[in-house]
Structure formats: C-alpha cells, structure tokens
C-alpha cells in the first residue's frame, strides 16, 4: 500500500490546510490503513488521525484500540488517551487539545471531515481550541478516495471473494433441508455472516435475507421460516482490512417457475445494458439514463429512487452514484457496485449486485467467484456441503 501512502501524503502537502484531521471511522481507516475493532458500534468512543503538512502523522486512540493499531503495522506517532478522564467524548477532546497545542497547530487551518462529526463534538473542539480555523475537507476526502490504487482494488477484490464464498457456503447448508429440516431465516442469515468471516473477512456489516413477500421491501427483520417456492434475496457487505464489498444475490427454494425465471432474466438484461456504459468518460447520470431508456423500451419496471449503483471502497456505500443527479464522470480506478432492482411475479425486489472497477478501456468484474447468471436453486442434497 506504499502507493496509497504516497498519494495521501502528496494530497496533504498540496492542500490549503496546515493539517488534516479524520474523525469518521471510514476516513480513519483510509488515512491510517488500519482497522479499528467494531468502531461503528461505539459512537462515543473516538479515534482520529492527524496528518500535518510537516512532521509525522499521529493516531489518537483509546487504550483498548492501541494494540490493534500497532499490530496492523502503524509506523507513525500514537497518542493513547484514558477514556475515564472525561465524560462521553471529553477525554478525547482533552487529548486532541494537548496534541494540537504541542504541535504548534493551535492557530492554524485544519481540514476536518465535517460530515462525520457531530455538532456537539465540533463545539467541544472549537471551545477548547478557539484559535484553530476548522474548515470542511470533505471534498478532499471524496476526491482522494474515489480513485483507488491497485493495492486498494486488490483488497476489494479479495473481500468480494470472501463474501460470495460465505453466501454459497450458507446456501449449501440450506440444500436438501427445505422440505423436512426447517431452517429459520435468522439462522440462514447468521450462517452467511459466519462463513464470510471464516473465509477471511475482517468484518461484516449489512446483512439481510428477504424471503417471499418480505422481499417486496428493501429490508425487514430476519423472521419466519424458509419454505418451498420462494424467491429470496441475500444482501451483504463485508470488508477485508477496511476495504469493502457490497453484494446482492438471488435464490429460489426449489425449481423456479417460468415467471420467476423470466423476472430474473429481465434484471440481467438491464444489468448488461448498464455494463455497455460502464467505461471512462461516461457520466454517472448517463449510465442511469441508458438503463431507464432500455427498461422503458422493454417494458421492464424497476425501482428508480435509489439509482442503479454507487461507489465502494473504504466504506460500502460512497461516491460516485449512478443516479439521475450525479454527473461525475467515470474514470479508471473507480470501483462501482452495480445494483439494479426489478420486480418478481409477486413484486419481490430482484437484483444481482456485483462490483466492477473502471479500466482504461471499459470495466473489469471484481466479484467474479460465481457468475450468478441464474438464481441459485435450493434443492440439492446435504452431501453437497
């Protein structure tokens, strides 16, 4: 990841800021190239990366996370603070105050990922450091992250393989059981998570299985039992060393009906139309418009509101966005989750969500472990596990 390190250092040195401060979990991972254990589950436990134009970068972490950061190879400075020295984020703010003063940045301009910071935390930092000019650096983070290095793409590709294998292994548990040994939907979703982690993922986030009528909406609680004849949707995002995949797969319990097969073929048709436009020089909203025209011509209904895809990288949903309003031009190095929702015979949401990297002459599929050109048919024997 030396290429990424150099890219970040160059961007900071050429920026309008005297230092960059990342407080969001994803931006922390991106700048430090380390992953904080379950950080999203602890919103009041704060960590940050401070990168000055001159001098070494510093991570600011509570004691509980410090060893994990060192174990992942962090070579910069580290400031460890005691969470018991203040209420909520008070100890973190105190540590930040002491650090910024000691570095002589207390009267300088610091760029911060403002979209990731609560008003309360920002007010606390401003109150303790009134001389600092805090300025939003969100566009800088966006521009940095939107084009991936080869190393980043490799981590995303690995995460795709881990997630697809996790889903397939969970489906193997399901084979041969629908008619007699009943599985709950919650247990099946848990098997997806477990097998993804067993395949080497360092974390799983979005996890959803929509069976039958529950598949008519984007998310429902994992409830009920798996039964014969249902289309079902399996959605999951997971990461490897802080780089994400975001996949959506479709299955059917038993042999699909002609109506179910035709509905899935419609989705694949629109996916292929989108891939015609997934190449450098094409604006995101042009990709969306191309698919919308194809859907209208073929009389295929699709769920337009969320768009048809988005970027993936240090988070599982980021810029750019394949929708009507995003005019960002696709460039080599962008990683796109292509995600078109159409409808099944009972108005179930159908999609086949894959990841692609934009290349010099088109795109390359990163989630290649299985084609998914047909829905996975659950009817095999347990010996297939």
Please outline what is shown here.
With 385 residues, the protein is an alpha+beta fold. Helices cover 35% and strands 22% of the residues.
The averaged pLDDT comes out at: 94
Work out the strand percent.
15-25%
Distance between the termini: 37 Å
Shape descriptor reads globular
Sequence of strands across the biggest β-sheet: 4-3-2-1-5-6
The SSE order reads HEHEEHEHEHEHHHEEEHHEEEEEEEE
Please summarize the sheet with the most strands: 6 strands, mixed
Overall number of strands? 17
Detail the poorly predicted runs: none
- Write the CATH homologous superfamily of the largest domain: Creatinase/methionine aminopeptidase superfamily
Oligomer: single chain
What is the CATH class designation of the largest domain? Alpha Beta
- What structural class do the secondary elements suggest? alpha+beta
Q: Compute the number of helices.
A: 10
Radius of gyration: 23 Å
CATH architecture of the largest domain: Alpha-Beta Complex
- CATH fold annotation of the largest domain: Creatine Amidinohydrolase
Helix percentage range: 25-40%
Tally the structural domains.
2
């Amino acid at each position: 990841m030396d290429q990424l390190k150099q890219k970040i250092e160059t961007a900071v040195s050429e920026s309008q800021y005297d230092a960059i401060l990342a407080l969001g979990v994803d931006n922390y991972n991106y700048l430090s190239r380390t992953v904080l254990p379950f950080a999203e589950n602890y919103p009041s436990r704060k960590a940050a990366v401070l990168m000055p134009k001159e001098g070494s970068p510093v991570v600011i972490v509570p004691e509980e996370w410090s060893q994990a950061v060192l174990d992942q190879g962090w070579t910069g400075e580290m400031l460890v603070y005691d969470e018991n020295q203040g209420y909520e984020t008070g100890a973190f703010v105190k540590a930040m105050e002491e650090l910024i003063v000691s570095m002589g940045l207390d009267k300088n301009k610091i760029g911060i990922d403002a979209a990731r910071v609560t008003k309360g935390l920002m007010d606390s930092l401003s109150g303790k450091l009134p001389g600092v000019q805090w300025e939003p650096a969100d566009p800088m983070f966006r521009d940095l992250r939107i084009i991936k290095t080869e190393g980043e793409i490799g981590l995303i590709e690995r995460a795709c393989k881990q997630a697809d294998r996790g889903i397939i292994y969970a489906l193997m548990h399901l084979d041969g059981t629908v008619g007699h040994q009943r599985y709950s939907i919650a247990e099946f979703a848990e098997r997806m998570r477990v097998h993804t982690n067993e395949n080497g993922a360092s974390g799983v986030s979005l996890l959803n299985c929509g069976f039958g009528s529950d598949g008519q909406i984007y998310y429902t609680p994992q409830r009920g039992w798996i039964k014969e004849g249902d289309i079902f949707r399996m959605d999951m995002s997971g990461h490897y060393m802080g780089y994400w995949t975001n996949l959506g797969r479709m299955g059917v319990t038993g042999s699909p009906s002609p109506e179910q097969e035709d509905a899935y073929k419609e989705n694949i048709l629109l996916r292929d139309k989108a891939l015609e436009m997934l190449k450098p020089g094409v604006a995101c909203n042009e990709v969306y418009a191309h698919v919308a025209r194809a859907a209208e011509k073929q009389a295929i209904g699709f769920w337009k509101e969320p768009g048809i895809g988005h970027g993936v990288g240090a988070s599982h949903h980021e810029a750019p966005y394949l929708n009507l309003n995003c005019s960002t031009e696709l460039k080599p190095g962008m990683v796109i989750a292509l995600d078109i929702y159409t409808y099944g015979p009972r108005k179930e949401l159908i999609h086949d969500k894959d990841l692609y990297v934009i290349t010099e002459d088109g795109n390359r599929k990163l989630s290649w472990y299985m084609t998914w050109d047909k829905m996975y048919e659950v009817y095999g024997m347990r010996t297939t596990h």
